[in-house]
Amino acid sequence: MGTPISQTAAQSMKQFTLPEGLQVWNGPESGSDTEFLYRENFRRRCYEKHGVAASDGATIFDVGANIGMFALSLMSRFRDLRVFCFEPVPGTYACLERNLRDSPHAHKHSVATFNVGLGTEDRQTTIEFFPGAPSNSTLHSEEKHRDFARVLDGVTFADMWRTNKSRALLMAPLFPFRKRLLRPAFERVIAEGVSIPCQIRRVSGVIAEHGVRRIDFLKVDVEGAEFEVLGGIEEQHWPLIRQISMEIDPANKPRIPELQRQLAAYGFGKVTVENMFGGPCIPDNPVACTLFAVRTTD
Fold first, then answer.
1. 4, 69, 108, 242: which has the fewest C-beta neighbours closer than 10 Å?
2. CA distance linking residue 26 with residue 99, whole number of Å
């Protein structure tokens, strides 16, 4: 776990200008992370694949909302959304709240933000926050420290090509040297982690408290705590969930077959798993995967 940090220190922010004039707030050291989040949510729409899609009037649970890039993307393209955003890191949450409040599309939607993480039970804990890469903040520090730089071992040129062909061509001469060139930066990001207190709640508690009757799109990206999020859903509430898009940390890949069986039992007849670049999900590869699930029976 990282060095303790005060909430005041965690709440400093800087405004970044992205393509098409989009302006968002994030931590001062997070320029590269902010650009990555923009590409994933506005260009690749990485959570909206394999039949998982939003629509006008949908209820969205954005678990691991970070600075709100997923919500901002949806808000710019749909109307009358009911969006619930959950982010446990205080500084990142402050950016999330400001970004959604300042969005020119805010008036078209009902948006609620929560400075909490979601898990199997209501509790207080600590989360490790990485100032240079806030989107990697995690409740599972040991696994993150072990696996973060290892992604360089697992990524292939085909993965880069699927994600961004132009960037892949530019990087092609350097790709064989990626470990030597990038590993020091990856290791520096991880070494700068800091420990911050945070609160955890359950999905079912939020459903009951806010009278949620349907979750059309459950997006989960919580850096290793994804199965804990699902563990906070009571049996009675599973029928409310129509679609799931969930990142699966490398350490949790062995649990994917079990999850596929569970989702099938809950009525999700279409389940697709791929790595975060759109390629095959290989169990012993250190690259995270994403699961897409669509309910086909009630």
1. 4
2. 9
The whole-angstrom separation of Cα 200 and Cα 126 is 10
Site of tokens 């990697």: 136
Q: Say what percent of the chain tops pLDDT 90.
A: 74
Pairing mode, if any, of strands 217-220 and 289-294? unpaired
The domains found in the chain, sorted by start residue, are 3-130+193-294 (3.40.50.150), 149-190 (no CATH)
Judged against a pLDDT cut of 50, whether residue 1 lies above it is answered with no
Q: Is the dihedral of CA 185, 67, 197, 256 positive or negative?
A: negative
Q: What is the pLDDT of residues 56-112, one digit of tens each?
A: 999 999 999 999 999 999 999 999 999 999 999 999 999 999 999 999 999 999 999
Q: How far is residue 124's CA from residue 245's CA, in Å, rounded to a whole number?
A: 26
pTM of the model: 0.90
> pLDDT-based confidence at 164, cuts 50/70/90?
confident
Distance in angstroms (rounded) separating the CA atoms of residues 14 and 282: 37
Residue 42's alpha-carbon distances to 22, 34, 290, in angstroms, are: 10, 12, 17
Bridge partners, residue 243, by sequence:
294
Residue closest to 163 by CA, chosen among 248, 282, 44? 44
Say which residues have a Cβ less than 8 Å from residue 248's Cβ, sequence separation at least 6: 226, 255, 256, 273, 281, 288, 289, 290, 291
